[in-house]
Amino acid sequence: MSDVSEVIQEAPVGPDAPVGAAPGQSELDRKINRFFLGAVVRKDLVKAVKGNAIVPSYVLEYLLGQYAASDDEATIQAGIDTVRKILADHYVHRNQSELVKSTIRERGRHRIIDKVTATLNEKDDVYEAEFANLGIKGVLVESTTIKAHPKLLVGGVWCICDIEYFHSADPRVVPWILGSIKPIQLSNFDVEGYLVARREFTTDEWIDLLVQSIGFNPELFGRRAKLIQLVRLIPFVERNYNLVELGPKGTGKSHIFSEFSPHGMLVSGGEVTVPKLFVNNANGRIGLVGYWDVVAFDEFAGKKKRTDRALVDIMKNYMANKSFSRGVETLGAEASMVFVGNTSHTVPYMLKHSDLFDELPESYHDSAYLDRLHHYIPGWEVDTIRGEMFSDGYGFVVDYIAEVLKSMRSQDYSDRYQQYFSLSSDISTRDRDGIHKTFSGLMKILYPHGEAAPEEVEEILRFAIEGRKRVKDQILRIDSTMADVKFGYLDRSGAWHAVSTLEEDEYPAYYHRERREGSRAADRAIEPTAGAVPTVQDGSPDERAQVVAPLFEGHREFQENQRGVSFETLLIPYLSGAGQITITDPYIRQFHQARNLMELIEGIAVVKDTADEVNVKLITSESNGGEDKVRKQLELLLKVKQGAAVGGINLDVSFANTIHDRSIVTDTGWKIVLGRGLDIFQYVTGDAFDLATRLQTYRQVKAFGVTYIREGQ
Known about the structure:
single chain, alpha+beta, seven-stranded mixed β-sheet, five-stranded antiparallel β-sheet, 26 strands, about 35% helix
């Protein structure tokens, strides 16, 4: 295949598709190709073919899906060459538009790839097309084409078109003729085959496949971080879903809505008007919400941005009632609304001085509007996008997964938790709707076949509740007349499970600043955290010794993405004063794990008397993967040993390859059981100008637990 005309044909999916085996594939990639061959593509290929073509990823993946949807390297390379040739021959670059026009004139007919928008010329009662890159307009379009592809009228669609040229002596006649037009999107797919294949994957495998489909390497994301990415897909699978995400710049907030699906439209928050979004009362023409599944507002934040109050009022009505008015007529629509914007302050700053919606324009910083939001994605938990985060594994061709999600919009999975759990009766109807829609969306994305274990159902129910709680807790700061809500659920035994937001656990003193002293929230805010550094008051040495806060005994859990955790508060108070410390951790093998060990030793060195020596025994296991990896491990441990010696700490290392437990034992009677050992922190860049490189409290942690046991009492 070498001509773009053959793109119209669909690639085979399933057992009849060609089979190969690319070297270096992961086990998951091989499994993906076994069950979805023809519907998946290697995600690094988009970058390989894009060049300087300014087109959405779904356009490129559509082409790659036709020519390179294989795991055979020769087929992939041939497909890349074909797609590059198609783009070179048919994609219209704006700076080459005159050359393309000349080609059409000289040949009489030429095939192009361009974004096409149609309008109704009411004077002549005809539809006319405008080609964004080619720069021509007034091209006649048949009514049947508009009826088949109404999105041409609102926002435009990327298409493969045959353009003809015929000059007329009549200057009023446009010489350009539309010979054929085909929007770039999948024409059909087998939804039953999709559901059957889903059963062949574990939940972890399926989540990783979806993360790879978005374009990211799942190995660099924790479970919670993956779920946050997947929540961005809910507007595509759930009708009338209202989502907000605010966070730092560069975290990919708008990427999904501009690149992932032909059914979504990303618009600048400042360019939105009532006619563009809802209806033009002058001519009755319906706006974006009538044609697109998702309308996302980019750069939505900004306190000083001017807003149309009438637009806000219509939007509030639409978000609550799924309808808007055209004159005396009430019209319904199914478009989900997404609002993304940047924050300019840290989370604790916003919690201390205002609220987590503080960045919104004044007209939107309104409890009635905010109460219509179903879920708040904590954008501050999402890492800034880095090159190594992108995947070179296999994921769904985005047009394929976009059609899958679209096909499920009419289904409702919101009651799938009720056989195991029930929501608090304290939760209002609007809160319940928000939780239900998020839960339904995640169920359709993760468990489209409807098969989920109770613990899997509980995981996404908690996630859905947390996202709505984040909305409601901030509304309570803005509008004191709203009733407080007890967010949580009951299991079948009647046991109550409270749900908190991560920032609530991280910054309780600021999160609950409006609560009065003596409340349960205030008590939580002042409760000593795990491993808190003992504090002393003014007075004599004897008096100070008596008011040192006792060290916590028991178990603590820390959530993924939580910040504010360090060895200084978590471990060092329990190691202070010890002369012999035994660390058992089988995974001190890689650079970041050796760095963690060195940082713990640094903490011990800071609190010990400079005239004392401390003996630290490390029991670990040898690295897997051959002699080279073992040698590198030994080199790292030698450097730690040498560095520790400078501070009067004698490190002795022994290997025991059968160990699994992770703990720290001191000769002062403490045993600390570490669920993840010392490897509790997420990826750190190593950049000398990144605070997280130097200060552990600025790093996000992996989910882990720690138990403090006082022995020999």
